[in-house]
Amino acid sequence: MATTAQSLRRYAGPPLFSFGFRPFFLFSAAWAAVAVPVWVGSMSLGDGTVGAMDGRLWHIHEMLFGYLAGVIAGFLLTAVPNWTGRLPVTGAKLAGLFALWAAGRAAGFLPASMAVPAAVTDSAFLVVFAGLIWREVLAARNRRNLPVCLLVSALAAANIAFHLRGAFPLFGPGAERAAVAVVTGLIALIGGRVTPSFTQNWTQAHGILKGPTAFNGLDAGVLAVTGVALVAWVAAPLSPITGVALALAGGANLVRLARWRGWLARREALVWILHLGYAWLGVGLILLGLAALAPAAVPFTAGIHALTTGAMGVETLGIMTRATRGHTGRPRVADRSTTAIYLLILSAAVVRVSAPFLAEWTIVLLAISATLWALAFSGFVAAYGPMLWRRST
User: Fold this and answer.
1) Which stretch of DSSP H or E encloses residue 49?
2) Which stretch of DSSP H or E encloses residue 218?
3) Do residues 98 and 129 touch, judged by C-beta distance below 8 A?
4) Distance between CA atoms of 242 and 78, rounded to whole angstroms?
5) Under DSSP, is residue 53 helix (H, G, I), strand (E, B) or coil?
6) ∠ at Cα 392 (388, 393), nearest 5°?
7) How would you class 17 by CB atoms within 10 Å of its CB: exposed for 0-12, middle for 13-18, buried for 19 or more?
8) Long-range contacts of 326-333 (CB under 8 A, 24+ apart)
9) How far, in Å, are 251, 335, 365 from residue 273 at the CA level?
10) What are the beta bridge partners of residue 54?
11) CA angle 19-21-26, nearest 5°?
């Protein structure tokens, strides 16, 4: 049986479909750069709707089930072959999977009369993708990554529930929270593997003996507490018990992060960006907890955007830049354009989380954050697009 490397060398089709990270990273980033301005434009220049959907709901859907689902697909289609030893999805199969994702984005602009076909079209991608991940992990008997399969399946179910909000109104908010919880869980699980691993690689390469603390019972405990807190938040977001659980989970994740000694790699942006992305996860959970305990003092949206714009925006750009450089044969070193992308997304997160605390400046800060977000992802497309659509060096 051919190895992954042999399979990729034999591939003779378009470079864009030679590996999963290529189309999904490129077009997910492009979509992130476009979708936020579309939403802002619908509010300021239009009637507040996009397609047949309220603009705010469209924005939520396209960030969670459009952009983030695409990046998750790109990452897992690249990582799962390494985890399982099975061949990657390439060529026509990859192009078909990507076409499902793209069709879902287009479906969001269909009129209300086509709401059912639009929902079915959009839901198809995550259902098919979840089935693919289950097949690969089960075929390899790779039990360690069964939680990843469950989380991707939960994301697919949340997307279906989101589309059912018309018939079942209570499904809507729960689906949104479930999707945020799933992606937060993936960051805690997978980010908790790659961040200390990449930091360890960097410290060893630079002769630093005492790097990150290895995974142990504390890490397992933090993951368990985080999972319980997120489930409680999906079920009862305003409960004081949920608030305490979220705040504890946030603090525990910050303690976990400190054990990875990210400051040792402060000279390499490709490493420290992952630590900052994970820090946003801890901050976001704490803010969500405080919003449940003291809603008059801490706005709910501050915690939501600390997790979405902060943890998810920062972490995904950190992963996409590093994976693209590594898998296209380039040095794993951040150049000036990469560092600029990181500074833009970090600034977008700070401004967006600050906005609900400054009521008189909220609209202005939202516009600034949206601009910074769009510039960060446009910068990724400009700097990394050629690496993704051309053959590896």
Assistant:
1) strand 49-50
2) helix 217-235
3) no
4) 35
5) strand
6) 130
7) buried
8) 327/19, 327/21, 327/78, 327/392, 328/387, 328/388, 328/392, 328/393, 329/392, 329/393, 330/387, 330/393, 332/270, 333/268, 333/270
9) 19, 13, 23
10) 49
11) 120
User: Is residue 50 classed as helix, strand or coil in its secondary structure?
Assistant: strand
The closest alpha carbon to 124, from 98, 148, 104, belongs to 104
Residue 180 reports pLDDT greater than 60: yes
**Tens-digit pLDDT profile for residues 334-384:** 999 999 999 999 999 999 999 999 999 999 999 999 999 999 999 999 999
- Please, what's the b/e burial string for 211-241 (b: 16 or more CB within 10 A of its CB; e: otherwise)? bbeeeeeebeebbebbbebbebbbeebeeee
- Report CA-CA distances (Å) from 16 to 35, 61, 103: 22, 26, 18
pLDDT confidence tier of residue 392, bands split at 50, 70 and 90: confident
Task: Specify the DSSP element, H or E, that contains 54.
Answer: strand 53-54
Radius of gyration from C-alpha coordinates of the chain: 20
Averaged confidence pLDDT in the chain: 95
For 94, residues 6+ apart whose C-beta sits below 8 A from its C-beta are 17, 19, 20, 23, 77
Amino acid, res. 359: A
Three-state DSSP class for 167? coil
100 neighbors 51 (Cβ within 8 angstroms): no
Query: CA dist 312 to 159, 276, 279, 281, 306, Å?
Result: 18, 11, 11, 8, 9
Closest CA to 192 of 165, 223, 155, 161: 223
User: What SS3 state is found at 236?
Assistant: coil
Instruction: Specify the pTM.
Output: 0.95
How many Cβ atoms are within 10 Å of 124's Cβ, its own excluded? 17
Angle (CA) 8 12 16, round 5°: 75
Provide the token pair at 335: 């150049």
Cα separation values, 261 from 115, 202, 272, 284, 334, Å: 49, 12, 10, 20, 19
Confidence of residue 60 (pLDDT cuts 50, 70, 90): very high
Closest CA to 147 of 155, 263, 237, 214: 155
Phi/psi of residue 212, each to 5°? -65, 150
In the predicted model, what is the mean pLDDT of residues 273-288?
98
